[in-house]
């Protein structure tokens, strides 16, 4: 059976990743998961922690984005499928960027968001292979595409 690599992009402030991982494990799905760094402070500060302090926020963020981008782009390129979660509390510009990159690379992706974000995400959803509102729906899509 083929092992699938699923990249979990987007919102980091809820348990959606854990729910998908647990659901896939419980269903015995042939999937491995990868994700960006989900510790918000570590992600924000990695550039200046590793490469030196910056006086201006722009350059601090630029360093962090560059370092985080190494992981994100590498794992996204290796992924067979992406799940891209948009939450309502924070704007996930990075998730929208990942969706665009997935499109450019021809990678299928599933968007995951509440119904009240449908209008705001209509273009992203139009490019998605599936649009889910719950992590459990994502697991069901993964079950179908990985096992038939």
CATH names the topology of the largest domain as Rossmann fold
- Low-pLDDT parts are none
User: Helicity range of the residues?
Assistant: 40-55%
Please identify the structural class as seen in this structure: alpha/beta
- Do you know the CATH architecture of the largest domain? 3-Layer(aba) Sandwich
- How would the global form be characterised? globular
Order of helices and strands: EHEHHEHEHEH
The main β sheet shows up as:
5 strands, parallel
Tell me the name of the CATH class of the largest domain: Alpha Beta
Query: Which value, in Å, is the CA radius of gyration?
Result: 16 Å
- Tell me how many strands there are: 5
Overall number of domains: 2
Number of helices: 6
Work out the strand percent. Answer: 15-25%
What does the average pLDDT come to? 96
CATH superfamily of the largest domain: Response regulator
Strand order in space, largest sheet: 2-1-3-4-5
> Could you tell me how far the N terminus lies from the C terminus, measured between alpha carbons in angstroms?
11 Å
């Amino acid at each position: 059976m083929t092992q699938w690599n699923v990249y979990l992009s987007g919102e980091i402030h809820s348990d959606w990743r854990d729910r998908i991982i647990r659901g896939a494990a419980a269903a015995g799905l042939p999937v491995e998961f990868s994700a960006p760094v989900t510790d918000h402070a570590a992600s924000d500060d990695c550039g200046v922690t590793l490469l030196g302090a910056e006086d201006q926020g722009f350059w601090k963020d630029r360093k962090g984005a560059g370092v985080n981008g190494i992981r994100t782009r590498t794992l996204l390129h290796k992924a067979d499928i992406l799940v891209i979660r948009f939450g309502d509390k924070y704007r996930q510009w990075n998730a929208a960027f990942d969706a665009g990159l997935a499109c450019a690379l021809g990678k299928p992706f599933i968007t995951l968001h509440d119904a009240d974000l449908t209008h705001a995400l209509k273009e992203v959803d139009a490019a998605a292979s599936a649009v889910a509102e719950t992590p459990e729906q994502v697991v069901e899509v993964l079950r179908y595409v990985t096992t038939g």
